[in-house]
Amino acid sequence: MPVTALVSAKSSGVTTSALALTLASKRPSLLAECDPAGGTVRAGFLEGEVTAGYGLYHLAAAERTSPDALAQAFASHLWDLDEAGHRKLLPGLTDPAQAAALTRTWASLAEVMQVLADDDGHDVFIDASRLAFDVFIDAGRLAFESGHLHTTLTPAPLLHQADLVLLVVRGTEQSLTLARHVIKPLRTELAKHGSGSDALGLLLIEDGPNRAHRVAQVLETPVLAGLPHDPATAAYLTCGGNQPRNYSRSPLLKHARTATEQIEAVVSRRLIQQQYPPRPTNPQLAGVLQRLSAKRGRRG
């Protein structure tokens, strides 16, 4: 199953989009809030249900100990987004100042993401079922330094190892103008350090006058999926509160469900066309995650 990283040139709804995809996926799914500027799901959608005692920051110390310790910490810091435990969240940072501690952790965390998504020999067991996850990474706003991804302000290794990197844009002139400045360096970065420049695509939020064909033309990058401008549902995913009427059938979640299928299809085509060799996986890490993923996340 795919590991998909979502990024933006400036705030374009990355977290809301990633959360919508996670909740709408037909398969088990995980949202990892890895925005160095801080996570917002715990204070927004979860309305403070998750304390600062859980989340991404706690993985840094574990990674410095051993792969086993990282796997143990990762599994113990997942939070269930549904009763069945098939929708999980790794809560993000509570303070942007914590990001510096994760600089050397991102690469190891990228390996964990690939293990969770791997459905070819390292499947994760939940409730005795053989399952792997759709993994969505909220990587936040892109930051560059001397033409390369910033090592502290952007979780570069997560983008390098992702099966797909989606730049979230809106159909407004302002959004397209900002996106123009990051497309070329991001494409170059993925060509040099990732799985290829074709790992980059656009996720279009249909807000503004520009439609998919125009956006793809202006940014010279394919629009791989789209989500509608659905203010009521987006506000609920951003801030929590009362669930909107017909929430499960809302335009945002309906289109997000379709988008997850489109993402999987794109990744499958890339794997076939480029004939990637199997990713080497740390068997020790895979074994620990298999055992620990069966444990339910916390819901308060």
Set down the secondary structure blueprint.
Layout: E1 3-8, H1 14-24, E2 29-33, H2 59-63, H3 67-76, E3 79-80, E4 87-90, H4 106-117, E5 124-126, E6 129-131, E7 134-141, E8 144-145, E9 148-149, H5 156-161, E10 164-170, H6 173-193, E11 200-206, H7 212-219, E12 223-228, H8 231-239, H9 251-274, H10 283-292
Parallel strand pairs: 1-7, 1-10, 2-4, 2-7, 10-11, 11-12
Antiparallel strand pairs: 3-4, 5-6, 8-9
Helix pairs in contact: 1-9, 3-10
Count of structural domains: 1
Low-pLDDT runs of 5+ residues are 121-130
Could you please say which CATH topology applies here? Rossmann fold
Order of helices and strands: EHEHHEEHEEEEEHEHEHEHHH
CATH class: Alpha Beta
Query: What is the fourth-level CATH superfamily?
Result: P-loop containing nucleotide triphosphate hydrolases
Strand content: 15-25%
Identify the CATH architecture.
3-Layer(aba) Sandwich
Helix content: 25-40%
**Helical stretch count?**
10
Span from first to last CA? 29 Å
Quaternary structure state of the chains depicted: single chain
Query: Structural class per helix/strand content?
Result: alpha/beta
**CA gyration radius, whole angstroms:** 18 Å
Q: Give a count of the beta strands, DSSP E runs of length 2 or more.
A: 12
What composes the largest sheet? 8 strands, mixed
* Broad shape: globular
